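Support reply, case 0932

Customer input (verbatim):
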Amino acid sequence: SRPAERLAAAKTVSCQFDVMAVGTWTKAGEPQVESKASTFKVGFEAIDADGGTAVVIGPFGPSDIIVRFSTSTLHFLQAFREGPLYTTTIFASETRDGKLKAVHTRHEFTEVSLPGYTSRPEQYYGECAIVK
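Our regenerated output:
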């Protein structure tokens, strides 16, 4: 079937992001970005695009989130009480082996940057496989 039809019917997807960009601001207030390799993986289960719900399976365990399907994209939205906003979009455009292009974005900022923790805006680029 066509990628958009498979995406609209997806119930479980598994994503891997191999490249990321991290944004920040210099002390003078100028925005800058750095790209680097990534090993970030995330999955989504119990996807109900009509009902607008899904469950994200990530490094912090399962969490209920919002999902929206529109013509040729499937969007996942996770808003945290502490302030961060994470979004993942899967496009109805194949990469290889039937996988679909995807982007994951983290809207987060803290004054102190700690290795291994998101403390600046991040955007990840990769692909997702429709498992079911």
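We compared this against your earlier run and they match. Two observations from our side: Residues 3-9 form the longest helix (7 residues). Helices lie at 3-9. Please reopen the case if you see a mismatch on your end.
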